[in-house]
């Protein structure tokens, strides 16, 4: 099992692929597509789960396969299988997820994924729009991202940590981009990349700025944070995504890339590795016949994964085969592996560490506070998303021997927060989203504007039954969390406490009603300094199985960049590098 490190060594090369993809030439140009991507080791992939991560991994795999110098006799194929349509739960089933150019845990890698994803959104939306035009007559622009800005509020140390990570990530990204440009200028990158470097296809995002309590008060007079928790960091380029629209965008683009790969004639640039000098020489492009990639989405539940195959739940219990099965089922990944005989929760033979021991699902509850259209168009018009750390010193280790409690690490070194830091920050903070429109669920039912708030300590569950029970039997009631102290004596953030926090932070806003929603995240609380919470498990690669956990309660916004790195590593067989 490997925790995904940021793509440092391949970053320049890999970045060039992103730029080309987002430039749209793969899809829409009538001229040839130029590629320097070597062949894949697998030619067929099944991706279990069409969430933000699975849909994005599939897109990048199809892109890599479509660009490859493919000498395979069989047609490369990527198939997504997703159970949403047949009642499988997910972490993204909602209207909004926030993203910004910083990270609440001050993690540099997550900050980088956030920035890269934000930079890519305009191009993805544009490609989605163009791809949709092939099928729809509507000319309405497609969008999944709303730029409303993002605010982080808390004590000085909390804010400074995120700011430092944002500054470092921005510097790292701009030096990567600079060295990419100079490599291109020196003829070290493929011709298409050289052309593209002059007209950037990723958008620029702002670096977050520090704001004093007085500046915040002037800009958002309706906010009244606790004294001592009123230092702030503001990112004007952050905002919220509609996760379902994002997935639709990724699926539509993937379909179009696959379709275009079969019809466009391609120029392939070959690479000569000059290992002694660690240089790559790019040779003249030559025209080759069209490269075909098949892409499809199946709506079904995967009951089991096995050697190069999956078993579907549909009445025939159909078996589908592929060279590689990539499990991106969010909280359901761990139960699926276990149900398939991959004893991910037990210790590996001859190993002191347990697989998936520190990765668990967490019961989350959100409160939805209804606001009127007058407030939405009035005082709340410029409301950003808010991460409000009101009590980071909360001691949640009331019962450390309780197996439902994950040990919360000592306050992590501010410079190197670990995956385990997620629990501490979640416990002492909330996120609040600006008004989001929720259409009525039933026909004739009117939609409403809601301010959404969530946060609080992680409460662990593991089995499919526990996850289903929480998602489907508690949905909209939040009964399990009605008290501030649960059955085990642990502090929790109940719906009423979440509501109180919003009311005290925004005392002048009138809320017309309160609803709640049960949801689930997957969290890796590994406290090793190397761990960033993204896990790409290839322990069963001999069976062609790779399992991914990439949530940490913040995996939807940066899914594009995280998945790009994961897809690249899977494609090039480099998971353990
Ligand atoms: C309340 C809440 C608030 C959040 N807020 C934010 C936020 O503000 N910003 C942010 O970036 N992130 C946020 N997140 C986290 C984010 O939603 C997740 O990180 C993200 O959805 C993870 O994506 P995923 O693709 O890994 O998993 P999921 O979103 O869970 O998708 C997995 C998919 O796999 C399918 N699946 C699972 N098992 C099977 C099976 N056996 N067969 C077939 N299909 C299967 C599921 O149905 C689902 O469609 C929040 C999460 C919650 C719960």
TrEMBL record:
Q: Which residues cross the membrane?
A: none
Pfam families named in the record: DAO
Write out the biased-composition intervals (Low complexity).
182-204
> Which key words are in the record?
FAD, Flavoprotein, Oxidoreductase
One MF annotation (Gene Ontology) recorded for this entry = flavin adenine dinucleotide binding
Q: Which cofactor does it need?
A: FAD
Where would I find the FAD dependent oxidoreductase domain in this sequence? 45-337
**Which region ranges are annotated with the description Disordered?**
182-206
Entry similarity comment: Belongs to the MSOX/MTOX family.
Name the UniProt record assigns to this protein: FAD dependent oxidoreductase domain-containing protein
Look up and give the organism this protein is from.
Fragilariopsis cylindrus CCMP1102
């Amino acid at each position: 099992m490997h925790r995904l490190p940021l793509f440092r060594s391949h970053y320049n090369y890999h970045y060039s692929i992103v730029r080309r993809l987002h430039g749209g030439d793969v899809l829409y140009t009538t001229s040839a597509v130029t590629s320097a991507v070597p062949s894949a080791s697998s030619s067929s992939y099944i991706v279990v789960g069409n969430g933000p991560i699975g849909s994005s991994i599939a897109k990048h795999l199809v892109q890599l396969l479509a660009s490859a110098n493919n000498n395979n006799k069989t047609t490369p194929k990527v198939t997504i299988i997703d159970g949403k349509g047949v009642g499988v739960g997910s972490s993204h089933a909602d209207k909004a997820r926030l993203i910004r150019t910083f990270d609440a845990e001050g993690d540099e890698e997550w900050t980088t994924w956030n920035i890269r994803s934000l930079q890519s959104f305009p191009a993805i939306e544009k490609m989605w729009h163009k791809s949709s035009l092939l099928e729809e007559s509507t000319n309405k622009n497609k969008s999944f991202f709303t730029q409303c800005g993002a605010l982080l509020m808390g004590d000085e140390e909390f804010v400074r940590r995120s700011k430092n990570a944002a500054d470092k990530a921005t510097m790292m990204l701009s030096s990567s981009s600079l060295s990419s440009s100079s490599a291109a200028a020196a003829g070290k990158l493929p011709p298409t990349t050289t052309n593209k470097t002059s007209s950037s296809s990723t958008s620029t995002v702002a670096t977050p700025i520090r704001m004093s309590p007085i500046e915040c008060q002037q800009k958002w007079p309706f906010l009244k944070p606790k004294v001592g928790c009123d230092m702030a960091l503001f990112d004007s380029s952050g905002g919220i995504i509609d996760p379902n629209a994002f997935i639709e965008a990724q699926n539509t683009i993937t379909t179009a890339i696959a379709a275009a790969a079969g019809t466009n004639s391609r120029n392939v640039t070959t690479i000569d590795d000059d290992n002694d000098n660690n240089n790559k020489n790019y040779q003249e492009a030559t025209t080759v016949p069209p490269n075909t990639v098949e892409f499809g989405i199946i709506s079904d539940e995967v009951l089991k994964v096995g050697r190069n195959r999956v078993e579907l739940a549909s009445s025939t219990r159909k078996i589908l085969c592929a060279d590689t099965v990539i499990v991106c089922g969010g909280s359901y990944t761990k139960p699926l592996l276990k149900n398939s005989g991959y004893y991910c929760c037990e210790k590996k033979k001859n190993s002191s560490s347990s697989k998936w021991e520190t990765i668990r699902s967490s019961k989350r509850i959100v409160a939805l506070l209804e606001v009127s259209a007058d407030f939405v168009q009035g005082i709340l018009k410029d409301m950003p998303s808010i991460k409000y750390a009101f009590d980071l010193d909360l001691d949640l280790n009331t019962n450390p021997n309780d197996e439902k409690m994950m040990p919360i690490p000592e306050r992590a070194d501010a410079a190197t927060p670990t995956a385990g830091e997620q629990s501490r920050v979640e416990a002492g903070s909330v996120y609040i989203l600006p008004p989001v429109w929720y259409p009525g669920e039933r026909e004739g039912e009117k939609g409403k504007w809601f301010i959404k708030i969530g946060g609080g300590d992680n409460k662990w569950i593991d089995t499919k039954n526990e996850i289903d029970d929480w998602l489907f039997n508690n949905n909209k009631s939040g009964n399990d969390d009605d008290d501030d102290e649960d059955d085990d004596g642990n502090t929790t953030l109940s719906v009423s406490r979440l509501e109180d926090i919003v009311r005290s932070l925004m005392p002048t806003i009138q809320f017309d009603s309160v609803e709640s929603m049960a949801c689930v995240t997957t969290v890796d609380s590994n406290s090793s300094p190397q761990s960033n919470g993204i896990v790409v498990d290839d322990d069963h690669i001999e069976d062609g199985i790779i399992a991914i956990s990439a949530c940490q309660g913040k995996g939807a916004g940066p899914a594009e960049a995280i998945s790009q790195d994961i897809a690249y590593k899977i494609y090039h067989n480099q998971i353990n590098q």
